[in-house]
Design a protein that fits this description.
664 residues; mainly beta; six-stranded mixed sheet; 8 helices; binds (dicuprio-$l^{3}-sulfanyl)-sulfanyl-copper; binds dinuclear copper ion
Length: 664
């Protein structure tokens, strides 16, 4: 075939696949049986049975739902500023979004993984990836605050991340885009991918008690796209599995050029071996630049540090860390069953699901059952690693979760359905339509050793006609199915915030009782705290003015401030003196180029304000905190630059002068 014809036919194949995107399942409709309502009804005042943590996609946030009701409980900002609670706007939280590129107010958040102990969810933390500017975050589930964000050098799009080992020893992060390493000259022609581009996998260690993250080491791998990943567990603990596409190493029009090979790879990584090499000093220190940001719950303040070194192990030189296993065609999901024996690859363009056996992989390595190598990495023979194939399961398999009863459920994007199959005999057991174009799916604990097979939740890319129209863009959605019986039963649709990708769910009891209700004021060590109204003050330092302010139902102290001048930078450090659950105060001032603050009980937050005109400027509490919330307000007087009005401040004492000559 001449190149143009070849190109045209490849394009036609892609067009065919894309046109299948819109095909609706045959039994479209609302095949919801009579008891669905009672199964999802959570009576007013009652709690849901599960927490469901859902990635926010291009919203950069994580949202938290109750299951089975589908009620939205909270939006937790991670990588994106959030005006609703001042995250990324307050002086204390701005450093959380610092990177080697400076302050970045947004990212694209795809995957979440709950911390585990012995392969079970322990409810301490949830980890999140940033896909665009490569980062991994840790959210503390006692406060639902983002506690830590670490940037990843040598990476270009952190998609296969964050996936964790069974004791949360490591968070792994594989780069989506291969790029020239950060310490090499990157000013090279783009079409020198094969020579100059590398794929990097980061192993982030997690300190057992504090959760503190650190890049323990990175693996330099051949230039491909790493897509998804899961850790081995049980017998395969010590290994990681990554799906790879673009093994064609294309640098343009990937939809055609990265869909040529009949098989791409699952990459098996022996991280225990990598640890040995690391200990033996086989790593190379590489100079890089990445930010590490930590939020301290005592100072209620984040700090950001730029780090400059990382240890890299070269998997081409250091044998027996990485192995490639052929996997049909553009694999996406890469999922490991609860026993750790079966590794399920899902080729986006494949018409079957290959299931690999950990034991067979080990034997293949021992026997050197290789089909040559790929860029210096041995390629295990497909048959030597394969346990078997699920035949004709559906179109466009993406992700698989496990029910802990020997079954797997796989999502199918193209045929818009979820399909249940048995891991041992690889027979399809049941299928249920999704509305529409399902991406990820989630069973509570579905990627751990102990799934809870009560529900599966499908996260759909397209909702089309499922909800009232809302202009050109419709909400993405989730759908809840009962999987406790033989037949999967659709129970509920609920819209999600942002585009949902991976999600996690866990029994509410694992998290509920650990929830912090307020911060102890005596433990507050923010340098600008006022631990009582007597400690409030306004301090001028040159053109900077620090207001040490308190909020308690229902007044701000001070609520009258004079002596501010044009050209000043004013910092309102507001301490919420309440010591009770669910009594935040807000703070906003007219004309502030900023979001409000939302200050939790016992916390101090700081809003920066630069007045731009002379006059009287109102400020107030934004959160309806009491019957007299509307009274929770005050004024700042701004005078011209050269004015000699002295700083003064008060609450309740700046009263009108009594005029003795006035008539009674
Ligand atoms: S992805 S819809 Cu970004 Cu996890 Cu598969
Ligand atoms: Cu405090 Cu409203």
């Amino acid at each position: 075939m001449n190149p143009i014809k070849k190109y045209a036919s490849a394009l036609a194949a892609v067009a065919l696949i894309s046109s299948m995107n819109s095909c609706k399942p045959k039994n479209v409709g609302s095949a919801v049986s009579g008891d669905a309502a009672s199964k999802t009804y959570v009576a007013p005042g009652k709690y849901d049975e599960f927490y469901n943590f859902v990635s926010g996609g291009f919203s950069g946030q994580m949202s938290v739902y109750g299951i089975p009701s589908g009620r939205l409980l909270k939006v937790v900002p991670i990588f994106t500023v959030n005006p609703e609670n001042g995250y990324g706007y307050s002086e204390e939280t701005k450093p959380m979004l610092n990177t080697s590129h400076g302050f970045i107010p947004w990212d694209d958040q795809h995957h979440l993984d709950l911390s585990q102990t012995n392969g079970e969810i322990d409810g301490r933390w949830i980890f999140a990836n940033a896909n665009n500017t490569p980062r991994v975050a840790r959210v503390d589930l006692s406060t639902f605050h983002t506690s830590e964000i670490i940037e990843l050098p040598n990476s270009g799009g952190n998609h296969s991340s964050p996936f964790i080992t069974e004791n949360t020893e490591y968070i792994v992060a594989g780069t989506r885009f291969s790029v020239p390493p950060d310490d090499k000259n990157g000013d090279v022609p783009i079409n020198t991918y094969k020579q100059n581009f590398k794929g990097t996998i980061s192993f982030i260690s997690v300190e057992k008690n504090s959760g503190a993250m650190d890049i323990a080491f990175q693996l330099q791998c051949p230039g491909v796209n790493f897509d998804l990943s899961h850790a081995g567990k049980g017998k395969s603990h010590g290994w990681f599995f990554f799906s790879c596409y673009n093994t064609e190493q294309a640098n343009t029009l990937l939809e055609v050029n990265a869909s040529k090979r009949d098989k791409d790879f699952i990459m098996a990584v022996n991280w225990k071996k990598a640890e040995e090499y690391l200990k033996a000093g086989k790593g190379r220190k590489q100079s890089v630049k990445y930010a590490h940001n930590v939020y301290d719950e005592k100072t209620h303040t984040a700090t950001s540090e730029i780090r400059t070194e990382v240890i890299v192990l070269d998997t081409k030189e250091l044998k027996d860390i990485c192995y490639f296993i052929p996997c049909p065609k553009s694999p996406h999901g890469c999922d490991v069953d609860p026993t750790g024996e079966y590794i399920v690859g899902s080729g986006k363009l494949a018409a079957l699901i290959p299931v690999f056996s950990f034991d067979k992989i080990q034997k293949a390595i021992a026997d050197k059952a290789y089909d040559g190598d790929y860029d210096g990495i041995p390629v295990i023979k497909y048959e030597a690693a394969l346990y078997g194939e699920v035949k004709k399961p559906g179109l466009g398999p993406l992700h698989t979760e496990f029910d802990g009863k020997g079954n797997a459920i796989t999502s199918f994007f193209v045929s818009s359905e979820i399909v249940k199959w048995n891991i041992k005999d690889l027979k399809v057991l049941d299928r249920a339509p999704t509305f529409y174009s399902v991406g990820h799916l989630c069973i509570p604990g579905g990627d751990t050793k102990k799934p809870n097979a009560k529900y599966v939740i499908a996260y759909n890319k397209i909702t089309k006609d499922r909800y009232l129209p809302t202009g050109p863009e419709l909400a993405q959605s989730a759908q809840l199915y009962d999987i406790s019986g033989d037949k999967m039963q659709l129970l509920l649709d609920f819209p999600t915030i942002g585009e949902p990708h991976y999600a996690q769910a866990v029994e509410a009891s694992v998290i509920r009782d650990r929830s912090v209700k307020f911060f102890k004021i005596e433990e507050n060590s923010n340098p600008y705290v006022a631990k009582g109204e007597g400690a409030t003050k306004v301090v001028r330092e040159g053109s900077k003015v620090h207001v040490y302010m308190t909020a308690i139902r229902s007044h701000l102290t001070p609520d009258n401030i004079e002596g501010i001048k044009l050209g000043d930078e004013v910092y309102f450090h507001v301490t919420n003196l309440e010591q009770d659950w669910d009594v935040p105060h807000g703070f906003a001032i007219k004309g502030a180029a900023n979001a409000e603050l939302l200050i939790m009980p016992g916390e101090t937050s700081t809003l920066k304000w630069v007045p731009d005109r002379v006059g009287i400027v109102p400020m107030y509490c934004t959160d309806f905190c009491s019957a007299l919330h509307q009274e929770m307000q005050g004024y700042v007087r701004v005078s011209p630059a050269g004015s000699n009005i002295p700083i003064s401040f008060s609450t309740g004492t700046n009263l009108p002068k009594t005029d003795s000559t006035a008539k009674k």
